[in-house]
Amino acid sequence: MRVLYLLNISNPDRLSADSGWIFADLLAPALADAGAEVTVAAPAAAGDARCGFHRTQVPGTKYRARFSADIDELAALIRSERPDVVVANQIEEAPAVRTALLEAGSDALLAGYCHYLPFSFASGGQLLLDPSLDDAGLGRPVLLAFAAGLAACDRVMAHSSIAASWVSAAAARMTVDLGARLRVVPAPRDERLVRDRITTQSPCDNGEAIGIYNHRLYAHYGTGQFVDLARALSASGTVRLRVMDLFGRRRAGRKGLDDSPEKMRDQLAALPHVQVVSDRGDRVRYKNLLAGARFGIAPFRPGCPWSMSVIDCQGMGLPVISPRLGWLAEHIDPELSFTTPAEAVALAERLATDDEFHAVHAKRAHASTADFAPALVAARYLEAVS
Hints:
Elements: E1 2-6, H1 19-33, E2 37-42, E3 52-55, H2 64-67, H3 71-81, E4 85-88, H4 94-104, E5 109-113, E6 119-121, E7 127-129, H5 139-152, E8 155-158, H6 161-173, E9 182-184, E10 209-213, H7 223-236, E11 239-244, H8 252-257, H9 260-269, E12 274-277, H10 283-291, E13 295-297, H11 308-315, E14 320-323, H12 326-331, E15 337-338, H13 341-353, H14 355-367, H15 374-385
Parallel strand pairs: 1-2, 1-4, 2-3, 4-5, 5-8, 8-9, 10-11, 10-13, 11-12, 13-14, 14-15
Antiparallel strand pairs: 6-7
């Protein structure tokens, strides 16, 4: 099977912070191991030497990534690669890809991967636009483009059963019947971030355990709620927080659309018992930062369909405490889920001080990622597009 993998990269300056690129870099070699011929078309190469690569332009903004597909380039690429399957990781590009397939005379299967959902659902079932994609009122056009992309695909893949149910519900509201085209295919875990032996972590030298928050600091990730939790945890005196600055210095164009990561980073850095650190794009340094922590904290992002950072923690045997929302409610052990800040503080303190409780959940966390090994995910991926 010849697979043409179309990948938008939103963070070319810090690939380690781009989950879509990490996903492709882990998945492409696993697909090759399974016998597929893979070519990645992206602004940066992903995979290993067995994978072909076609360099594409970096879209200037997240909106250009959705609305500025080059059909001439796509058609030429399809003619040269002659794929059996084309994977569009930016669902909104799927109509342009379908057009290019038509012009190239290709009967390749078109699969879309719902890497990011431009909507969420309120507790009453109300469909909400993603605020991060609603600058100048563009939220509804993005949502409609997402629906058009779903309609153009032969297969639609989503990370989890929760994400699949949301995609199906949103599609139905926009009169797109997915029928039997929808598949659940999770993202692969990074085997470099999987600890062989799970042991109870020791507290820091000063007697405080470290809780790590390794998520993007955008306001739409619910970072403001995490800042409030960080204040409460700092006041407890039992836990010290390690916050990852995943982006470092961002391009002016990206900051111009949303400068909340910088603002949130500064707020967190000003709190006592909070350390803001960077892995500098080095996966070994990142692993060491995780290894020195006692537990992780999930993001407060509404409608979260997946979190590679949560999987990173769990693969390292770090229990993750989480608000009860989105895919997190499906994946995180109910004993580690919370509704109020007080519950979150109590869970963090118990993980910090109760070795038996921590050991049980460290093993559960590690085991919860077993099905996300790249080889297993690649098999599900190929089954989904066969």
